[in-house]
Amino acid sequence: MLGIVLCGGQSLRMGTDKGLLNHQDKLWAQVAFDKLSSLNLQVKFSVNPSQQEIYAGYFGNEQLIVDYSLLDIKGPLLGVLSAHISNPEEDLFLLACDMLLMETKLLEKLIYSFKADSTFDAYIFSKDGQQEPLCGIYKADGLKNIAHLLNTNGLAKHSMKYILSNLRVCEITVDEHDYRYFGNFNSQEEVKQVFLE
């Protein structure tokens, strides 16, 4: 299994690359990297071509998976399928770089579910009835099917939630007291608010 820190978003609302923001003297991308690494996974950063040079400066080129420009898709799915094409036999453990509050104990729940029953294509959390697709395990075989659907024009939408509707999904319900760990931050104000509370 390979850990993938998703950093390739446009960060339009934040106005700057979220993965390169600092939190307690660490880059957001590094914070997510460390959490996945603590699960004894090899971890790489998913970035878009415009980010490659600066991320290589921080982490080294060998740590990066750059979006494939030949894939005619946008959004997180581009990063996910680019990582899959680079590592077709590996199951992928995704974590978005802006899920800053995510706790390792929750990530361990996903690993536990995966080990307990390996018959699903994806293992994700469900919070208040909503799936959380950017923190989860996606198996290689399931991603192969998604890539095949893409190649045969069988994907009506490219959203991660639509992708999940085409996979056998193990959903872990998030307890209400753990909701805060699933916040993702889109502005500097949101970050300040949470850490001042």
Layout of helices and strands:
Elements: E1 2-6, E2 22-23, E3 26-27, H1 28-37, E4 42-47, H2 52-59, E5 64-66, H3 76-86, E6 92-96, H4 104-116, E7 122-127, E8 130-138, H5 140-151, H6 160-165, E9 169-173, H7 188-196
Parallel strand pairs: 1-4, 1-6, 4-5, 7-9
Antiparallel strand pairs: 2-3, 6-8, 7-8
Structural overview:
There is one protein chain. With 197 residues, this protein is an alpha/beta fold. It has one domain (2-196): Spore Coat Polysaccharide Biosynthesis Protein SpsA, Chain A (Alpha-Beta Complex), CATH 3.90.550.10. 35% of the residues lie in helices and 22% in strands. The protein is built from seven helices and nine strands; from the N terminus they run βββαβαβαβαββααβα. It has helices spanning 28-37, 52-59, 76-86, 104-116, 140-151, 160-165, 188-196; strands at residues 2-6, 22-23, 26-27, 42-47, 64-66, 92-96, 122-127, 130-138, 169-173. The strands form two sheets. Strands 5-4-1-6-8-7-9 form a seven-stranded mixed sheet, with helices on both faces. Strands 2-3 form a two-stranded antiparallel ribbon. The longest helix is centred in the middle third of the chain and has 13 residues, at 104-116. The chain is globular.
Q: What is the compact description of this entry?
A:
With 197 residues, the protein is α/β, with parallel strands linked by helices. The protein has helices spanning 28-37, 52-59, 76-86, 104-116, 140-151, 160-165, 188-196; strands at 2-6, 22-23, 26-27, 42-47, 64-66, 92-96, 122-127, 130-138, 169-173.
Notable characteristics:
single chain; about 200 residues; alpha/beta; Spore Coat Polysaccharide Biosynthesis Protein SpsA, Chain A; seven-stranded mixed beta sheet; two-stranded antiparallel ribbon; 7 helices; about 35% helix; globular
